Amino acid sequence: MTESSNTLARPHTGRIRAGVVTVVTLSVLTGAGLAPPPAQAATLQARALSVAASKQGDPYRYGAAGPDSFDCSGLTFFAYRQAGTRLPRTAQAQYDSAHHIPRSDRRPGDLVFFHSGRSVYHVAIYAGNDQVWHAPHPGADVRLERIWTDAVWYGRP
Predict the structure, then answer these.
(1) Is 100 tagged catalytic?
(2) Of 12, 100, 115, 134, which residue is the catalytic one?
(3) Which residues partner with 83 through β-bridges?
(4) Where is the NlpC/P60 domain (predicted)?
(5) Which runs of consecutive H residues, i.e. helices, occur in 31-98?
(6) What strand order describes the sheet that includes 111-116?
(7) Would you say 65 and 142 are in contact if contact means Cβ atoms under 8 Å apart?
(8) Is 72 a known active-site residue?
(9) pLDDT given for residue 132 in this prediction
(10) Catalytic site includes residue 134
(11) Alpha carbon 100 to its chain's center
């Protein structure tokens, strides 16, 4: 047996390098391979996006905030609440409380505010590829749809 194979065959002495334990532990806990865990904000956004997508097909109902029917701000309110944070209840109040970001910084899970002039009339959750999850209007269901106008602002809770 060579010296190097003898070293490999030695029983574990109980000492483990902290850096190795940290990477392996994070890998197991986050399920993210050897990558570090995602930033808290990104995790919140991903969870909210997942909740909104899970509501596909639920009916629009004015004033509803879930769990089985929604208006536009009710869907965003519900999704972010399930993800672990609170938003105000209406689209305008959600816009007023959000951290406003430029289009170039938008990420999946961000809020998309549709406006006319200075008034917000609709809110959705950005899904990527110029698409949003939203509860569009009476008679429609929660769905994924392409952003249909340039009159939008973006925000992050």
Answers:
(1) no
(2) 134
(3) none
(4) 42-157
(5) 40-54, 72-83, 91-97
(6) 99-101, 152-156, 111-116, 119-128, 131-134, 143-146
(7) no
(8) yes
(9) 98
(10) yes
(11) 16
Which among 72, 99, 100, 115 is annotated as catalytic? 72
Alpha-carbon distance of 114 to 29, in angstroms, equals: 38
What tokens does 55 get?
């509501």
Q: Is 14 helix (H, G, I), strand (E, B) or coil?
A: coil
User: C-alpha angle 65/113/85, rounded to 5°?
Assistant: 50
| Per-residue pLDDT, 40 | 63
Structure tokens at 5: 């194979």
> Could you tell me which of 62, 89, 72, 69 has the C-alpha nearest to residue 125?
72
Mean pLDDT (10-residue bins), the chain, 157 residues: 42 39 35 45 89 98 98 98 97 98 97 97 98 98 98 97
Q: CA 147, CA 75: separation in Å to the nearest integer?
A: 17
At 35 the pLDDT is 37
Q: Under a CB-based contact definition with an 8 Å cutoff, are residues 150 and 156 in contact?
A: no
Question: What is the per-residue pLDDT for 101?
Answer: 98
Measured at the CA of 77, the angle between CA 43 and CA 145, to 5 degrees, comes to 80
Give, in degrees to the nearest 5, the angle at Cα 84 between 82 and 85: 105
Place of tokens 């902290």: 18
